Amino acid sequence: MELRTSRSITSAAAAELVHRAVERGAPVSVAVVDPSGELLAFQRMDGAPAFSARLAIAKARTAAAFARPTADMESLFEGREGFAAGFLPLGPWFVSKGGAPILVDGECVGAIGLSGNTAEHEDAVARELAAG
Fold first, then answer.
1. Residue 111 to residue 69: CA distance in whole angstroms
2. CB-based burial of residue 102 (10 Å sphere; 0-12 exposed, 13-18 middle, 19+ buried)?
3. Distance between CA 100 and CA 113 in Å, rounded?
4. Three-class SS string for the chain?
5. Distance between CA 96 and CA 71 in Å, rounded?
6. Residue 67 near residue 108 (C-beta atoms within 8 A)
7. C-alpha angle 115/98/131, rounded to 5°?
């Protein structure tokens, strides 16, 4: 039987990413997940909307599941309402700006998601932190 070895971001590295996002000062919720989408670290800053907590986690899970930034997935749904209606209920997905995979040697080792600010801010911070 063939086996494959997979790698994952550590909880300490996940906590560091959350800390770096919080240091930016803009009130957001930030979530870091492992490659299977399970939560490793999370913080909802004072001033971040309550709803942003769930969205940050969903964005991180989506980026991990598909190993691509969530913003890049928006185009998959353009003009495909039927596809979107069938696809989105299948998982805890959130297809919008603010989620980015953490890739090491082309392998997704986790992902980060942000919510609670502008989509552009969330996307820029997520991509920057995911890139290292």
1. 9
2. buried
3. 7
4. CCCCCCCCCCHHHHHHHHHHHHHCCCCCEEEEECCCCCEEEEEECCCCCCCHHHHHHHHHHHHHHHCCCHHHHHHHHCCCHHHHHHHHHHCCCCCCCCEEEEEECCEEEEEEEEECCCHHHHHHHHHHHHHC
5. 5
6. yes
7. 125
Give residue-wise pLDDT tens across range 86-101. Answer: 877 888 888 899 999 9
Q: List domains and CATH numbers for the chain.
A: 11-131 (3.30.450.150)
Residue 8 has pLDDT above 80, yes or no: yes
State the CB neighbour count (10 A cutoff) for residue 96. Answer: 18
Query: What is the distance between the alpha carbons of residues 59 and 131, in angstroms, rounded to a whole number?
Result: 16
Q: Would you put residue 105 in left (φ > 0), alpha (ψ -120 to 50) or beta?
A: left
pLDDT for 41: 98
